[in-house]
Amino acid sequence: MPNVILAKRLKNIIDMLTKNVYDYGCTGIFERHKLLFSFQMNIKLEQSDDRVSQQQLDFFIKGNVALEKSPRACPASWIPSQGWQDVMKLSLDFQDSFAALPDNISRKLADWQEWFDSDTPESADIPGGYRDTLQPFELLMLLRCFRVDRIYRALTDYITVTMGEEYITPPVISFDMIFEQTTPFTPVVFILSPGSDPTADLMKLADRCGFGGGKFKYLSLGQGQEATALALLEGAISHGQWLILQNCHLLVSFLRELEKQLELMSKPHPEYRLWLTTDPTPTFPIGILQRSLKVVTEPPNGLKLNLRNTYFKMRSHALEECIHPQFKKLVYVLAFFHAVVQERRKYDKIGWNISYDFSESDFVVCMQILQCYLDRCYAVKGPIPWATLKYLFGEVMYGGRVIDDYDRRTVGTYMEEYLGDFLFDKFQPFHFYHDSVFDYVIPPDGEKEQYIEFIDILPLANTPEVFGLHPNAEIGYFSQAVREMWGHLIELQPQTSESGGAMSREDFIDGTAVDVLSKLPQPYEIWRVRKQFEMNITPTLVVLLQELERFNRLIKKMHTTLSLLRKALAGEIGMDSVLDNVSYCMFNGQLPQVWRDLAPATCKGLGGWMDHFIARTKQYTDWATMEEPVVIWLSGLHIPESYLIAHIQIACRLYTWPLDRSTQFTRVTSWRSADEIEERPVCVCESGGAMSREDFIDGTAVDVLSKLPQPYEIWRVRKQFEMNITPTLVVLLQELERFNRLIKKMHTTLSLLRKALAGEIGMDSVLDNVSYCMFNGQLPQVWRDLAPATCKGLGGWMDHFIARTKQYTDWATMEEPVVIWLSGLHIPESYLIAHIQIACRLYTWPLDRSTQFTRVTSWRSADEIEERPVCGCYVRGLYLEGARWDLEEACLRRSHPKVLVTELPIMYVIPIEAHKLKLQNTLRTPVYTTSQRRNAMGVGLVFNSDLWTAEHPSHWILQGVCLIMNTD
Question: What CATH number belongs to 175-297?
Fold first, then answer.
């Protein structure tokens, strides 16, 4: 009969050891890695109990990496193409659970699409009853096929089910517990994060342990502090003192000496302790790290964990130190607000325009202020001074860190939403947020431990709506987070043991190598292709020959590396770093770097890239053995730009056009497939062939030069309108001056660049940057400095430049546009101010007491408007982020799922006397130049618009609604 007591004791030991390993590990890693650590622990335990196989884990991490794709067509366009390949792999490799999955999806497309579109598919019912039949890890595998952006949330649910919530709830840093783990031979290294400083907590710990005053030494390291630091260290070791060396990353050279001193230390005083603080740095000596206890000081990730951290660090009797009956409730409200403002940071620009380092000290000081004012009003039996508290919390303490006006407005909105007598209304209880899952309320009064117990029942995962944001806000954050996690998991997988299937890792890699080798064509005989077409050497043939040269280099490199890899796997030769990388990538379905360097840029895995490689091979072979394709597949060319330039050259030869004044335009046809087209057009798009880097840059420079207009003759424009010099004409003249500087700078740099490429002059740093950017499709810095802010690449920016040229030319030669394209102006604010000036002259308003407001019209296109308004202007080209515009109701509405940005109809900007402006039910909405919004220097905000809303403006303020003038 089994010994029940022994089994229970062993289980308790295992559970305690597992939890201790988790707690110790979490102390020394960053927040972004803690879920990864939990999952890695969890999956190792699951694998040891045979609940998850290596084959299942490989699928979850890598998906379908097979080179051969399933012949079964995807049944719906909304299913991601890679997701369908993953579905087919599930059905083939895991038939016990997923054999009928493809058929089920095809039969119930509407049900599967509804699940796919769900905000929380990880918890919603799955069609076909799969939620009831699948194991927890199998649910993750299924979710991977459809909604990568929800995997991060699903992982927390999975770990909670399999191990318990305590394994996704990192321990709160306790300085007393840290001290208990230290010895004179074990320093403590605090790895700092923005806004954190453990010095104050260490000083409190020293006081509690009797090491205050002269027994506590600290030094902030910097240049020239080496001798002082060594003297303090020697004194601390011999006299039993505590020594804190701050900012060690600023004096890494001293740390080498410190490492030696720690190694030589033999009999230190038993009470001596060494504490170090440092920013993350790769140059920190590994010897110190190995002997130290590592502690990362970083706010926890998640609302619940943040609240928990705040209350854990609170002094045990802190809640009893104020006699006002509402003190405890308001402390919880303040703690909730503190967690919210920190959580908004992870949503990038839609959370805060600028990321702020809100810290624990902000909360502590605000709590002291709260206690002071509540004690005072309780003594005089007066009301709570809400206005004062809102100002001190929202404008001084937290607002004191905020430098953006709209971010400050967001903080102020939280103050209005969270502070007021409504908190204590018993008939209409206050909710921070509530939905069908959970009701976020203020807990009843109690001791500190009771508040912690209440916090422990909060959901670990919460929607961005708790912070006032739209669910769309987390799509980008979670997608990026899970892809980073998968990358780390691949690195953590065993690279020398079993692959998870029936074959060993080496056999799997060798099989994949054989498969790839079987798909490699023979290198092309370029001399034969040239001879075949020697009577008709066209620019596009030159492109083909250069493309084949590049493709041959790739083929040969792939053949060489795979052949050597097979020999290394067989033990015939050694495995160098290149072959090791190829082996690693083949096993994990990634593209080896040595191949990537010789191929067009790609984000594909090995399987998708091989499909692309085979398709490229077919296009090259058909072209080399028959004729140029009727319809070219540009993605199948290494340098597709060269093919397009080649067609410009052909057209120039055919029609005797000057090459430096020729360009191209595009037109979308009605054909959906290349099979519908029987012959190439007479005038295709042609110019320079497959070229060297220098030829390509030169060709691009020529192309850009051909698009440059002549500098505007500003004197002629001024003379043309000399009888009617209006404020908007002054704006035009100033804009043309700036545009002329840009044109001249572009012309100068490109002309000099061409000379430098020809070897006529030297290549300086400016020209080198222009050359680099031209080759990589980026905007040169020397042009960027003279142009409006942009996030576009060179191609998109040139389209923008040409459109600006057209607007300036039409305005200068005809009249002011009926509808202005604000993004086409360098300083769009000046145009809007000019219209205020015009209105002031027209109606004799004082300029310093005039302003403007906006109204969104029902017009979608400028073509619908025939004349300018008498007062003000129409504006086009604005995009709404964080909400959408309801054209029928003419108001803001909630964004559609997964739609982040929508275009706004034409906006009417109307000047008005400031004292007459009385808007109701409108949201004061910032208009920014780009999606980067405003930066820390205040650049980016153009003007403020007014958008009508049927809901309270605070709803949209917390959602981060704004207008932008340029999409990326």
Answer: 3.40.50.300
- Report the 10 Å Cβ neighbour count for 427: 4
Architecture, CATH, for domain 817-968: Roll (3.10)
Q: How far is CA 506 from CA 64, 67, 403, 509, 858, in A?
A: 19, 18, 57, 5, 65
Residue 685: the pLDDT is 37
Fold of 303-433: Helicase, Ruva Protein; domain 3 (1.10.8)
Residue 437 gets which letter from DSSP? S
* Secondary structure (DSSP) of 248-259: GGGGHHHHHHHH
pLDDT tens sequence across 499-557: 444 567 777 777 777 878 887 888 888 888 788 777 777 888 888 888 888 999 999 99
Q: Which CATH class is domain 505-667?
A: mainly alpha
Each residue's pLDDT tens digit, 287-311:
899 999 999 988 888 899 899 989 9
- Domain 505-667 in the same topology as domain 303-433: no
- Of residues 142 and 500, which shows the higher confidence score? 142
Residues 901 and 967 sit within 8 Å (Cβ to Cβ): yes
| Per-domain residue ranges of the chain | 20-167, 175-297, 303-433, 505-667, 692-810, 817-968
The reported pLDDT for the residue numbered 498 is: 47
**Amino acid symbol at 498:** E
* DSSP helix/strand/coil, 243: strand
* Residues 377, 368: Cα–Cα separation, whole Å: 14
Distance of CA 377 to the CA centre of its chain: 47
**Do residues 337 and 414 lie in contact, with contact meaning Cβ atoms separated by under 8 Å?**
yes
Among the residue ranges 58-67, 313-322, 948-957, the one predicted with the least confidence is 58-67
Q: Does domain 692-810 correspond to CATH entry 1.20.1270?
A: yes
CB burial readout 262-293, b (16+ within 10 A) else e: beeeeebeeebbbbbbbeeeeebbeebeeebb
**Predicted confidence (pLDDT) at residue 873 exceeds the cutoff of 90:** yes
How far is 59 from 63, CA to CA, in rounded Å? 5
User: What is the residue type of 475?
Assistant: I
Task: Please enumerate in sequence order all residues whose Cβ is within 8 A of that of 457, keeping only pairs 6 or more positions apart, or say none.
Answer: none
Burial 547-579 (b: 16+ CB within 10 A, else e): bbebbbebbebbeebbebbbebbeeeeeeeeeb
Contact between 333 and 422 under an 8 Å Cβ cutoff? The reply is no
Of 146-160, 469-483, 836-850, the least confident: 469-483
pLDDT score, position 771? 83
The answer to whether residue 854 scores a pLDDT higher than 80 is: yes
Give the C-alpha distances (Å, rounded to integers) separating 708 from 713, 789, 800: 15, 19, 13
